[in-house]
Each structure stands twice: as structure tokens, then as C-alpha cells.
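Let us work through a complete example step by step.
Step 1: write down the sequence.
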Amino acid sequence: MTLNVQLISQEKVFLKAEAGEVILPTPLGQTAILPGHRALVVELSAGEVELTSGLGGSTIASFAVTGGVAEVRNGKEVLILAPAAELAEEIHEERARVAMERAQKILREEGFKDDVKFAQATAALERSLSRLRVARKRKKHGPTL
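Step 2: predict the structure and record it as C-alpha cells.
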């Protein structure tokens, strides 16, 4: 039994695939979804969405998402809605590193003076760190898809 997975970003239907397991980044940590899972709606944190062949199986696809929401339907469908998604192999580490440094600079120099700038810089830092982690993990463990 497999899960039908759709990942939709603001720009497009990013992915339609089958997987034996979907691992989602949530505010409470990673959540694994297997076929037969009960209905669920869960908030996503910036992090890695990983599709595997099954519990403990090989990775089919890996994506960085910037947050969002996931819904499990009928124990066999997973719908992931994310503001932005990026295939692990397509993440440019240098751009992510520059974004991280820019966010850190804003936080150091002016972030605490302005609540809005603080929130924006914190979110940018979280996104860039997430992208770096996903890219480095894939570089270490090999490509997906």
C-alpha cells in the first residue's frame, strides 16, 4: 500500500508521486505518515519533506519547504500546501548561505529595534538554515528522484 502525495506551492503543482512514507517537518519535530494513517491536518515548519519507499526505506524525493500545512485524507492521500518548495538538488548553497548571513546581520544591527524587521529576519534566517540543512544532507546521502 502506498500514499498518493501532492505538493503544491504558490507557483505550481510541485510534485505528484507515490510513497511508502512521508516525513514532514512540524513545530513539534518530524512527523511520519504511513499508509492507513488517520485523517490529520498539521502545520509545517520550514524544513525537509522527505518521501521514502517505506518505513526506514530509501529516499524517493526530498524538498525544502518554507512552512505551510499538510492534510492526510482517507489514509492514502497526503496533500502538502507550502508557500515555496525547492527540490534538494536544486538548492544553491551559496545563495542560501548569503541569505543566512544577511538575516543574521539584520538581527545583529537593527532587528531588536523594530518588531517587524525582527520577525522578517528571524523567518528569513529559519528558511535559509533549513535550505542549507536539506542541501547538505542530500549532498552527503546522494540525489533523489
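Step 3: interpret the result. The chain has two domains: 3-88, 91-141.
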